[in-house]
Design a protein that fits this description.
By secondary structure, the chain is an alpha/beta fold. The protein is 44% helix and 18% strand. It has twelve helices and 14 strands. The model has no long low-confidence stretch (mean pLDDT 92). Belongs to the ketopantoate reductase family.
Length: 320
């Protein structure tokens, strides 16, 4: 396949490296220092399973289609949620990108709606990425030991986007990334967000600095011990909000998320949590703020989300 990936961060870089090594035509849309490093060094990937670092050559470009000189078969959108609108508008304005199916990767429940409004629902694939990836620097990432996967499905059945799903699954499988077709892709996004957002906000609120000023995180212990009931209460608020918003989620979703959390490495942290520890807003607005906004639209009581959203905003304002 011809594949364009927007965003050279942890997920975008990991997908780009794997797909390029599997023999697919890949271009990576980047800017600034990341673009410079792609063009002068390549994409640097550290794999903890083998304790090895490799350089993968993936063409760095400034816009979709620049390397191919024609439209790609699919665009993976892998920027942070905060860059979603700007980058999707760039896709809409680019003749080599307009009308190409766009597969989303963000942990943001508003992402499918935003993308559908800008590009048309018939062109959008909602997706859920799982795996332990970390962005280390410009065009540099690490992949921790363990499986990686992508669930993907079209917002509209029998649409142009739906037609490329089998090709996406085959391409990712050839790159060693487990890929499956998701019949309820928006529900899958919300289910993952129930873990990422609720765990992330509790982690950010309970992180502390030791005597040397270093941030100390309790990791997943925060949802396995004292704050487990709060974790469940946050998820219940999200479930009520999702259903009010017309998202289909079954009654077993909270149990599944709890089981997933209990199986993850105890030291795990979320990207939102790491950003806040560094004094950055990161995905706070796209994850926590989104739930407060959607709940308000439907008159759903999400007082815990509202409290943590306000608390963490105030903490960031006090950050040096």
């Amino acid at each position: 396949m011809r594949i364009s990936i927007i965003g050279p961060g942890a997920v975008g870089g990991f997908f780009a490296a794997g797909l390029a090594q599997a023999g697919h035509e890949v271009e990576l849309v980047a800017r600034g220092r990341s673009l410079d490093m792609l063009r002068t060094r390549g994409l640097q990937v550290y794999r903890s399973a083998s304790d090895s670092t490799e350089i993968v050559q993936v063409p760095g470009v400034t816009q979709v289609g620049e390397y191919f000189g024609q439209q790609p078969d699919v665009i993976f959108h892998a920027t942070k949620a905060g860059a979603l609108v700007e980058t999707l508008q760039a896709v809409a304005a680019n003749s080599l990108a307009r009308g190409v199916p766009v597969a989303l990767t963000q942990n943001a429940v508003e992402a499918p709606d935003i993308a559908a409004e800008i590009l048309g629902a018939e062109n959008i694939l909602a997706g859920v990425v799982r795996g332990f990836f970390h962005h280390l620097g410009p065009a540099e990432l690490s992949h921790a030991d363990g499986p990686s996967s992508y669930q993907v499905g079209a917002l509209v059945e029998n649409s142009p986007a739906a037609a490329v799903v089998p090709g996406i699954v085959d391409a990712l499988e050839s790159a060693g990334i487990s890929a499956t077709v998701e019949d309820n892709p928006v529900g899958a996004v919300w289910e993952k967000a129930m873990f990422v957002s609720c765990f992330g906000v509790l982690g950010a609120a309970t992180d502390y600095r030791d005597g040397s000023g270093k941030v100390v995180s309790p990791g997943l212990q925060v949802v396995r011990g004292t704050y487990r009931d709060t974790f469940v209460a946050l998820m219940k608020e999200m479930l009520s909000t999702a259903r009010a918003h017309g998202v289909s989620l079954d009654d077993g979703v909270i149990t599944r998320v709890l089981n997933f959390a209990d199986q993850m490495p105890a030291e795990a942290t979320s990207s939102m949590q790491r950003d806040i520890a560094a004094g950055l807003e990161g995905e706070l607005e796209a994850q926590l703020g989104a739930i407060s906004r959607i709940a308000k639209q439907h008159g759903v009581d999400v007082r815990l989300h509202d409290f943590f959203y306000t608390y963490l905003q105030e903490q960031l304002q006090r950050s040096p």
